[in-house]
Amino acid sequence: MSDTNSTADLRSTVAGKPGDIETKSMATITAELGEKIDRIDPKTLSVVKRVIHTTADFSFADTLTFAPGPEICDQAKQALAAGGVTIVTDTNMARSGISRPALAKLGCSCACYMADEDVAAAARANGTTRAVACIDKACSIEGPIMFAIGNAPTALFRIKELVEQGRFDPLLVVGVPVGFVNVVEAKEALLETSIPAIVARGRKGGSTVAAAIMNALLYGITRTSEGSGARA
Question: What's 61's DSSP letter?
Fold first, then answer.
């Protein structure tokens, strides 16, 4: 076979509409979930599938927890649709992964303070992690706020403390830090509060998971096919 024909075959394999690969991937996820999909609440299904799509890890179908219940997905989407929400992340990776076009369309924004000089200085002065100083800085944000935490369990502990102190009242906390030290404890501590939360129980998670969850909520508004809770 000539190089020209090989190139043509490759192009035919990858050609198609930009969303074709994602559509096929989601269909594969639905098929491989099998009967388990019937046990996933339709309100949360788009989030579960988006996380599996990002990680290729079907265990998230069992570990993703929505507190106090599945309705928080609809509540979060309503808040995002109203605009003016600031999503604060604990890594620039998560911030970069959250869809900028979707945020712009809804009049929302995303911020990460981890690399800010004043955050580093505050962490040194107070003997805390940068993640704690980052959450402290978020207290100055005006308007509705959500958190997408995929790396630092100390951020979850600090959010809990500041909510208890009445410093802010987040509309949603995505708590999916990954790791071995204080990760499980921080997630369970968050779930013990009344704070609306989406948590990946156990050690798994990460910045990509945090971004995927936020994107699932955003796409549920900006992409009509993902806002219906369809199982296909």
Answer: H
